[in-house]
Amino acid sequence: xxxxxxxxxxxxxxxxxxxxxxxxxxxxxxxxxxxxxxxxxxxxxxxxxxxxxxxxxxxxxxxxxxxxxxxxxxxxxxxxxxxxxxxxxxxxxxxxxxxxxxxxxxxxxxxxxxxxxxxxxxxxxxxxxxxxxxxxxxxxxxxxxxxxxxxxxxxxxxxxxxxxxxxxxxxxxxxxxxxxxxxxxxxxxxxxxxxxxxxxxxxxxxxxxxxxxxxxxxxxxxxxxxxxxxxxxxxxxxxxxxxxxxxxxxxxxxxxxxxxxxxxxxxx
Length: 268
Prior knowledge:
Layout: H1 13-17, E1 46-51, E2 54-60, E3 66-70, E4 78-79, E5 90-94, E6 99-103, E7 110-112, E8 115-116, E9 123-125, E10 130-133, E11 138-143, H2 145-153, E12 159-167, H3 187-202, H4 208-215, E13 226-231, H5 237-245, E14 255-257, E15 260-266
Parallel strand pairs: 3-4
Antiparallel strand pairs: 1-2, 1-11, 3-5, 5-6, 6-9, 7-8, 7-10, 10-11, 12-13, 12-15, 14-15
């Protein structure tokens, strides 16, 4: 099992973790989170800048601690030239596994995949995601070819190893668990619970393993959610496709199966 998330020693992740983040620029309203990790210098992540569906530029994320985007040359790391954009509009940062986007309380908002995001809240960026700022006609597409390559490699591997957190509901195929003999919550309530677990893990207020051990409705809870190695055809289809589509160290979005609602973390 890798101890360096999805990147292993190839990107010298351990060296990045040992560094200390610099202070933000004077007068900046961005407060670096405790989980912040410097993006490896040779990481391929970048933003592709498009206008009217044509590429007009590219911005590398490698080597940065974060990237503030905005109109101010004094406060922004990447200056966006449009009058509707705030001086400090949004920021992109890296937690060692995932890239995340946050709107910094801008006047006219930030859209992630065409949906306006809540200000001052972190949102995970996936390969190919689009970002739009205020009324600017430019689109910034997030590209992380190394992560995408690792996901595609899942199609050729014979087995994977995953942990999972399961929240059952009254319509689960077996609405009982080691935690409760009769589970009566609705599917909607189960989804709210799993989303709260996801937020705790992403904000580093709890670990995947601890939540799985304490709260998962699967008997694998005693192993901190570890399901061991498994191949294709052993799990329900939605679970299998998710597991084999993840990079090592990557956590899924909530998924639904006949068993309930899950979060999946690939560990091998």
